[in-house]
User: Which sequence fits this backbone?
């Protein structure tokens, strides 16, 4: 009984750590990449740094834009990570502002990740359109 | 009786596993990740046999139940070989391959001996509770091995993004499944609710995350592990 309780608690704690690190590794690669002017214009992103709460709006725009279907899995993982950060921020805002600030910074990274995915999909849509335009009738 | 969602999750698993194998073959990395490839192919084979046993004998049958749980234990042992291959890659520069292989053989022998002793001691009552306890212990060994490997990745400042993501995805899989099994061991009544979804979803997560890594992350991609440590400042 005690062994099962210990295994359960340790597994849950480690799962959280592995999942957070995994999501950070997926997002980390996108952190250094700049957003293009066209995605800023289309998604109405005026600030140089994206806000955390822009993530959901960017995901809605992503659903409207066709893509190659290769970024669905990582978007879902980052979406789950974002939801977890949202809860963490809400809980720790009054108790531990440092943790809430960290969660907000991570949410900003999630938004940047979603904006880059949108950027890729816009490029893909334009490529499709130009191929259709150039194809003989 | 299984519903359409159960079947969907069931068939999505082999599709994701096939994607991993196709990615490895296309990138000519099948032999480089041979343990991982064997595990993925083994999982596909077991899922197929599971499906035929389910159709022939039904979900409540002894044939299906025994095959499901014991093939799962064997697949977990195959997954230990995948971890050992990751250990070899992390410690490659230290030329520690021979020690890792010896440790892998020792671990396999120890796991087999432990399992034999447990089965021998419980041969008169090989109940579902025993099977759950065995699964919980095997998966927890996986969690511990992956956590030690993750510690080594951080300590040695490993920068290969692909290796980092493969290890982390494996960590999520092992810990989610070990937590589900231990919860089931503690509260058998929960199996009928959300708990029975966790192992198949975790089983779907692993090939999906691996396929994503092989498709998106080139072997040459690098990442500073310091960026992955969650610290509030």
Assistant:
């Amino acid at each position: 009984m005690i062994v099962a309780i210990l295994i359960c608690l340790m597994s849950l704690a480690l799962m959280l750590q592995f999942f957070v690190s995994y999501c950070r590794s997926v997002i980390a690669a996108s952190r250094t990449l700049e957003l293009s002017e066209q995605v800023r214009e289309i998604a109405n992103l005026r600030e140089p740094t994206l806000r955390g709460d822009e993530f959901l709006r960017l995901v809605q725009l992503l659903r409207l834009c066709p893509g190659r279907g290769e970024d669905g899995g990582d978007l879902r993982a980052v979406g789950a990570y974002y939801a977890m950060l949202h809860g963490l921020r809400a809980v720790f805002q009054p108790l531990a502002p440092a943790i809430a600030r960290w969660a907000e910074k991570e949410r900003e990274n999630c938004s940047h990740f979603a904006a880059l995915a949108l950027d890729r999909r816009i490029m893909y849509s334009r490529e499709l359109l130009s191929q259709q335009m150039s194809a003989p009738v | 009786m299984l519903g359409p969602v159960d079947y969907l999750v069931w068939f999505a698993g082999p599709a994701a596993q096939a994607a991993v194998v196709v990615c490895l073959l296309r990138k000519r990395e099948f032999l480089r990740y041979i343990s991982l490839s064997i595990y993925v192919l083994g999982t596909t084979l077991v899922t197929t046999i599971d499906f035929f046993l389910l159709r022939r004998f039904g979900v409540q049958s002894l044939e299906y139940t025994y095959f499901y749980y014991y093939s799962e234990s064997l697949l977990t042992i195959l997954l230990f070989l995948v971890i050992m291959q990751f250990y070899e890659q992390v410690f490659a520069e230290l030329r520690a391959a021979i020690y890792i292989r010896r440790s892998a053989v020792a671990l396999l022998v120890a796991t087999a001996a432990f399992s034999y002793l447990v089965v021998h001691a419980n041969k008169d009552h090989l109940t579902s509770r025993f099977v759950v306890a065995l699964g919980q212990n095997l998966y927890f060994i996986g969690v511990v091995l992956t956590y030690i490997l993750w510690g080594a990745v951080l300590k040695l400042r490993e920068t290969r993004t692909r290796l980092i993501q493969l290890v982390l995805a494996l960590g999520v899989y092992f810990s989610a499944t070990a937590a589900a099994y231990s919860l089931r061991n503690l509260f058998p009544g929960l199996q009928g609710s959300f708990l029975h979804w966790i192992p198949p979803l975790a089983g779907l997560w692993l090939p999906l995350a691996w396929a994503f890594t092989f498709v998106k992350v080139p072997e040459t991609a690098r990442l500073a592990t310091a960026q992955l440590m969650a610290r509030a400042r």
